[in-house]
């Protein structure tokens, strides 16, 4: 891992990771997690090589950083991502709570190069528009099938952990 020491260096490292991913036939995403002025973890998008739709650069970097820190929180960290995170990565970032997320390109900047293809959901704006809709109006068919036992599991968790926030 190259030594980076400033915001500009960390941002450039995210670009370099994404560039290397594209050169290797992968997708154009790179992420760097920084704590106390040093790179804690890095990630590139490996969806095409692992065939895992969750194997995004941000997720890989979050996982590595959290393992290194021994916690599910990135308190005190800054995350540098080449582009505005997708909803999955954004949700993960909210959950791990870094001090800051720095993104280097907007969804609108990237959209002309990502739209189309065989994936009907891949166009960046589509995700955000879909999540803004009520669950029963989204393109991905969803069905609510209530089961009392489902909520019971959460009650058990709340009692076990004394209402600790997830």
TrEMBL record:
Enzyme class: hydrolase
Sample GO molecular function, one term: tRNA-specific adenosine-34 deaminase activity
Keywords: Hydrolase, Metal-binding, Zinc
Keyword rRNA-binding attributed: no
All residue ranges annotated as the CMP/dCMP-type deaminase domain in the record: 5-121
EC assignment: 3.5.4.33
Keyword Lipid metabolism: no
Domain of life: Bacteria
Pfam families: dCMP_cyt_deam_1
Listed InterPro entries: APOBEC/CMP_deaminase_Zn-bd, CMP_dCMP_dom, Cytidine_deaminase-like
Protein name: Nucleoside deaminase
Source organism of the structure: Nocardia elegans
């Amino acid at each position: 891992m190259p030594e980076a020491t400033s915001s500009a260096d960390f941002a450039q490292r995210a670009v370099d990771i994404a560039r290397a991913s594209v050169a290797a036939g992968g997708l154009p995403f790179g992420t760097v997690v920084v704590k106390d002025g040093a790179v804690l973890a890095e990630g590139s998008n490996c969806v095409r090589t692992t065939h895992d739709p969750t194997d995004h650069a941000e997720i890989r970097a979050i996982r590595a950083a959290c393992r290194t820190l021994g916690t599910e929180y990135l308190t005190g960290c800054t995350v540098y991502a080449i582009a505005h995170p997708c909803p999955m990565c954004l949700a993960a970032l909210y959950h791990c709570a870094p001090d800051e997320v720095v993104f280097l390109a907007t969804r609108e900047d990237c959209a002309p190069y990502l739209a189309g293809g065989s994936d009907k959901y891949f166009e960046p704006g589509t995700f955000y528009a879909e999540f803004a809709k009520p669950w029963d109006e989204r393109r991905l068919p969803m069905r609510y099938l209530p089961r009392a036992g489902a909520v019971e599991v959460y009650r058990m968790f709340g009692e076990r952990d004394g209402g600790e926030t997830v």
